[in-house]
Amino acid sequence: MEFMTLSFGIHAWASCPSLATLIPVLFWKSYYFLYSHRLLLFIGLVFSRSLTNNAIVSVLSWLLTPNGDHIVKSAILTNAHDVLSLVFLVFMAYAADSFIGRFNTLLFSNVAYIVALVLFWKFHPHDKIWVLLVTLALLALGTSGYKILQDALRDLVTDIDDSSDPDETRSNARATIWYRVAYMLGFVLAIFVWVFLEFDSSWKSAIFICIITMTLAVIISGFGHLGILGYFLKPS
């Protein structure tokens, strides 16, 4: 529990800059704030991925060290996941720009994320090593999609901006603000998940919450992309 608390505290401290960047919104709302119903589709994805990243991935080492065992193996596997995530990030960006497009790449990343969570929820991390390796590879595919999501959100904000003098810098700032608002909401919910669940038996409950949240976000964003929710999300 002490290791988990320390790891979670480090990630909480690392999120402070994101929280601090929200302060300008209160003073320059006309510059930083832009709203459209279509943004909610991507905001849901950012929120669900933030919840999962802060509630599960940020304390992955703790999950892989039950009862203080397998510490060396846990360190190796956690570092392997981080390296795989960086490698997959390059391939995901290439696939998004050259082959299947950003939305399909993002959908593939989110589905891999969900499958990894289901495997963590279903199997004990050290029951079968091949299951653990497959799970970590899928988790790396999932976590590597954050950059694609940031780019897709920025493009959407640019498309929505119908002002007479569109500005790329302003569009990037607005996309960044929306991303960080959703990220901080996911981070705050992750804190409540670990506060209100019993530490000894919270892993399956926390993972299940993340599975449901990510699945709903992917389904809603997929329907929106296909135009099924177009009637409800069309501009007023």
Structure notes:
The chain is an all-alpha fold and 236 residues long. The protein has a single domain (33-161, 168-233), classed as Growth Hormone, Chain: A (Up-down Bundle), CATH 1.20.1250. It is built from 13 helices and no strands. Helix 5 (39-55) runs antiparallel to helix 12 (202-226), helix 7 packs across helix 9 (129-143) and helix 8 runs antiparallel to helix 9. The longest helix has 29 residues, at 168-196. It is globular.
Question: What percent of residues adopt helix (DSSP H or I)?
Answer: over 70%
Low-confidence stretches: 1-8, 228-233
**Rg (CA only):** 19 Å
Tally of DSSP β-strands: 0
